[in-house]
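User: Here's a structure from my thesis project, written as structure tokens. My advisor, Dr. K., wants to see whether a designed sequence matches the one we expressed. Can you design one independently, without my sequence as a hint?
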């Protein structure tokens, strides 16, 4: 159930292509950025509807892009970043090179092959966007001291979580000295127990109130119920 229920047991030729492409481009990234990309790859609904996968990743990219702009005071086109990484002649991320430094190299020193980019298939568009999203998320991890994961990103997209909620949620993770955003995913899955469950419930409640301080207790519980329902439905 949940996010992974999107994924069929069978592997289509399209699914094999995307999995192979993600594995290949992941080797160009640091272990941390590559891990984020791998997490996205495991959650992408390859079989059911590739258009749904594009919508999910695109929404996550939009939200993370807005947070990136606030933190780094600059905009980034994640699909273009991913396309540049996959272009012939682009060097991999070097050992010890931060995600921000690699982003600067891609932005300033690598020219996009616009003719090829304009002819991008929907499968390549998905891989490019996921790749750029992973690198940008890793830059936020390094800056904010959190661990934005691939499944967390896909959850943002699946639930269509808004910028304000995600921004405050990440900040509240940092304030509670919690690094792994998969804790939020586990909460939605109802996998947490005891103090972990209570702590995450309080963080989600605080986040909802950060976004709208006028919410009643009942409205908060309804919003949490709706999130869990949307996450876990087939």
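Assistant: Designed independently from the structure alone:
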């Amino acid at each position: 159930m949940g996010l992974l229920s999107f994924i069929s047991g069978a592997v289509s030729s399209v699914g094999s292509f995307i999995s192979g492409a993600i594995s290949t481009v992941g080797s160009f990234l640091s272990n941390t950025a590559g891990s984020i990309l791998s997490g996205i790859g495991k959650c992408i609904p390859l079989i059911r509807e590739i258009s749904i996968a594009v919508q999910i990743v695109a929404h996550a990219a939009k939200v993370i892009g807005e947070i990136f702009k606030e933190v780094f005071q600059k905009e980034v086109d994640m699909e273009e970043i991913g396309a540049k990484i996959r272009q012939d002649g682009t060097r991999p991320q070097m050992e010890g090179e931060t995600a921000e430094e690699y982003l600067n190299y891609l932005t300033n020193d690598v020219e996009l092959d616009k003719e090829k980019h304009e002819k991008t298939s929907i499968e390549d568009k998905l891989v490019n966007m996921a790749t750029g999203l992973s690198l940008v998320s890793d830059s936020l991890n390094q800056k904010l001291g959190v661990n934005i994961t691939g499944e967390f990103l896909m959850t943002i997209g699946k639930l269509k979580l808004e910028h304000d909620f995600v921004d405050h949620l990440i900040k509240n993770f940092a304030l509670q000295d919690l690094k792994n955003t998969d804790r939020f995913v586990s909460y939605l899955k109802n996998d947490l127990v005891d103090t972990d469950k209570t702590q995450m419930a309080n963080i989600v409640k605080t986040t909802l109130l950060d976004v709208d301080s006028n919410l009643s207790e009942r409205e908060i519980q309804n919003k949490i119920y709706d999130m869990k329902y949307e996450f876990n439905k087939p």
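When you compare it with your expressed construct, this may help: The chain has twelve helices and no strands.
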